[in-house]
Fold:
Amino acid sequence: MSTHEVFTDRLQAGVLLLPTMVVSLLFLYYPTVRAIGLSFYQASLARGDVFVGLENYRRLAGSTEYLRSVLLSVLFATCVVVGVMAVALCVSFLIHEIEVGKGLYLVAVIWPYALPPAVAGLVFLFIAHPNIGIFTSYIEALGIDVNWFSNGPQAFVVVLVAAVWKQIGYNVIFMTAALGNVPESLTETAELDGVSRTQRLLRVYVPIISPTLVFLVIMNTIYGFFGTFAMVDLMTKGGPAGATNILIYDLYRTAFQFYEFGFASAKSVVLFVAVGLLMYGQFRLSDRYAYYGG
Amino acid sequence: MLGSLLTALTAAAERSRAAGRTTSDRIRRFETEQLTLHVLTATVVFLIVLPVLIAALVSTKRAGIVTSIADLAPGGHALSNYRRALIGLEFWRYMLNSFVMSVAVVVGKLIVSLLAALVIVYYRFPYKNAVFLFILFTLLLPVPVRFVPLYRLTTELGMGNTIFAITVPYLASATTVFILRQHFLSIPASLVETAKVDGVGPLRFLWSVLVPMSRAVLVGVSVIMFVYTWNQYLWPLVIINAESLQVAQVGLSLLRGQASTGEVAWSMVMTGSILTLLPPLALLVLFRRQLLETFTIQQK
Structure:
């Protein structure tokens, strides 16, 4: 028992905790439980709720369109995690290795953390626009026909680049902090031995900062699944032909374009379970491989 | 593993020192390396900043159509563009709504989380761990997973289309409670004992001891919460129907719709984008030190 615990009035404790508990129950737990409940109903604005049992889940299991959206989301989130972390690690390492003027680079590079996803979406829509994009004519001069308004894979790549770009700053904040905590003596020893820079990064730093990397893999996965909604909505609306229709966008459309609340709830339950499992899996794996101090 | 690595590295270092590498050699090598590093880093940083630089440049031009790098020279219409976006297209309204929402969420979350963290660190009561887990578990319930029933609930409570709809559901924060708890635990326990002996109640203790001692963390947490709230898009999009109540993030797409009829469309949209980016960016630059400190706690 901690020596901090000097107050014992239970009533007081209850009153002080009340706001957190009420908001958590009402706006976090209750809607989640209700989503599970609603997923067994055919619920829409017009007809009211009709109990249909597992019908919504049966529909999901039989929908190739939905399966495609699942695979697409997993691919998208994986690419986001790998892309963001690879770029951010390189950038953080570069900044870490610099002796003078570190702070300036750091400020310049972490600001995308403050960048709203909606702004990221619009800016990329503009600079990569098939007709008026700034680099479009240059890329087309290379023999590539830029038209991601109709070309699915191209649209996927453009949204992906926007998503990765927006998340770099957040990762750099954590990585530079972690690199800054690596014992100086270790760096010096490696340097004296003439261990090359890349070797030092991969063999010495990465294992030591692996707890931070694990944390970032989890945060980036959540971001890949949920945080990119605004970009998809503003850039592609899930298209063309479903090429960027990731789960969260599909869920939004089911609920607020087709008003199928029951079916949408079934989809959010699946999403909830999937993300939960994914995070659990990452925790288990990382526990085995990550290096936690000492 | 680390131990053996260290030994190996030390041994190798001894060997290379014995081989006799002169100091001036090393310094010269060091300098060219640093120069290369600067060039490399500056290039990468420039590439990362470039998209928003382009947006900022376009927001100063009259026509927003920019098809080649040569078109990127800054225009002289910055003032008129920003005035037109803010006043003519009423973007100030969206900015104000976003601002009210974010400030309300930050203040509300701070109060609610400070009270919860106070109880979790300084009170002894049964099922304490269960309560803490109950709060932490909400991390697994992000808005996107529950927004369909949340929409129904908010509408049923008569909060749809109000400022309450975009503030109250955000008030409980597992992250904030957790960060504050970690920080409180690092404050010497003797302080609270002295306070208790002096007859200082928990709320007085919170206000006159904990809050002043947590200034940096509170600022850092506030910046994180502000940026998070300011950047919300999905929930306001769903729950707010009245255009006059909409927030800047969603207002951007409205701006795009309104402006697309005129020839200045893209410069207006980029003007709106820069306006929307400014508040969180200003906070990040102003409070970067506190922010980094808070992030370090969050990782632990």
Remarks:
- Chain B has two domains: 1-58, 88-295.
- Residues 191 and 209 of chain B are 8 Å apart (CA to CA).
- Chain B touches chain A through 107 residues (CB under 8 Å).
- Residues 88-295 of chain B form a domain with the MetI-like fold fold (CATH 1.10.3720.10).
